[in-house]
Amino acid sequence: MTNAPARAPQKPLHSGAGLRVRGHFGELLQGKLGAEGPLVLVSLPCPALWVELGTGDRSLLGPRRVRALCRALSLPEPDTLPPMQATMPPGGGGGSSTAALVALARWLGFDGAPETLARACVEAEGASDPLMLPRPETCLFASRRGEVVERLPALPRFEVLGGFLGPVQRTRAEDEAFPDIADLVAHWRGGVDLPGLCALTGESARRTLALRGPEGDPTASLADRLGATGWMIAHTGSARGLIFAPGRVPAGAAALLEQAGFTGVLHFAGGGA
After folding, report:
1. What is the pLDDT along the chain (273 residues), one digit of tens a residue?
2. Angle at 77 (CA atoms; ends 74, 82), nearest 5 degrees
3. Which residues of 78-112 are buried (b: 16+ CB within 10 A; e: fewer)?
């Protein structure tokens, strides 16, 4: 008679309490790298948006994604999941799904390469944001492959005032109806100052809105009204932001966004070496 194989331990290596993974506030760029190229993006990290384990009252993850993540990383499936709290709305473009997967992997003890975790997140849900990478704003990231296509220069310092506006939209792995942005990436990789960055983020947003909607997005006109250097959007989701030079967000700007229908208005710094 042979002995049955030992069951993998179910106790996680991390207690979970206070384990936090930062989300992002949409993308500075997103689209196809050439007509037949991969879907790529440059993420905008946001310290105000995060998923935290050990608080809240839900897991944010269903059993299918948990099984797929554990299988991809050779981790034991937990008997129970810790509660999770997210400060970003689902479908808002804040990266809640990826942040929850990254938090779960770390809770279970994964400490391998970020690129391995990115590919595992793609295995779990068909797409990933680069939230597991250090300084994701300096990576051109293929979100359906979980790969860093190339490293990009550091960005100039700026501030973002934004929130969530319009319908939410969850990422679908099969959705690749995005515009070609190879020309924008070519300009970006040479290094940009703040006006140059804003010209590229605004053009990426305009192309996506023209192709995917919704019509009548007011973000560009609000940027003009408030004297912002530029604007950006979540290319899948409802996050919308105005980009300002450091210290140049005018008084009363947040109230104006709220009057225009923005919810969850936030103000944070981005860029810098």
Report:
1. 333 333 333 445 455 557 999 999 999 999 999 999 999 999 999 999 999 998 777 778 999 999 999 999 999 999 999 899 999 999 999 999 999 999 999 999 999 999 999 999 999 999 999 999 999 999 999 999 999 999 999 999 999 999 999 988 888 888 889 999 999 999 999 999 999 999 999 999 999 999 999 999 999 999 999 999 999 999 999 999 999 999 999 999 999 999 999 999 999 999 986
2. 125
3. eeebbebebbbbebbbbbbbbbbbbbbbbbbebee
Last residue within a domain, chosen from 97, 123, 149: 149
Q: Give me the domain span that covers residue 142.
A: 20-149
Q: Which residues contact 95 (CB under 8 A, 6 or more apart)?
A: 23, 24, 43, 49, 88, 129, 131
> Are residues 129 and 170 part of one domain?
no
Look up the CATH number of the domain holding residue 38: 3.30.230.10
What secondary structure letter does DSSP report for 144?
T
Amino acid, res. 128: S
Q: Which of 90, 96, 61, 55 is nearest to 77 (CA)?
A: 61
CA angle, 106 as apex, 104 and 108 as ends, to 5°?
A: 70
For the record, the structure tokens of 187 come out as: 């300009």
